[in-house]
User: Fold this.
Amino acid sequence: MTKDEKIALSKIARLGCILCSEVLGIAGSPAELHHVRRYGAKRSASPVLPLCPEHHRGNSGVHGLGTKGFEDKWGVTYEALLERVNEKLGEQS
Ligand SMILES: [Zn+2]
Ligand SMILES: [Zn+2]
Assistant:
């Protein structure tokens, strides 16, 4: 990982859990980084979502529910969340 990539990832983590803030209205939940796997894409090129431990690895999280289950439960798509992450990053700079 390059220095620029590390800086980019730490900025994303600092946004806090994107599901908490966008869906539940709770700002600033400490976030872990979830790499969204796209078929055929390299891990280093895969987009990243900031998610709190529960929404990442918990029973109501991406790994607990799987992609489809997660999107159905919360009524959001990864793409929509990724877009919000990008918007928020843009607002910061
Ligand atoms: Zn969360
Ligand atoms: Zn993950």
User: Anything to note?
Assistant: The chain has a mean pLDDT of 91. The chain has five helices and two strands. Residues 17, 19-20, 29, 51-52, 54-55 surround zinc ion (ligand 1) (CB under 6 Å). The beta strands are 32-35, 48-51.
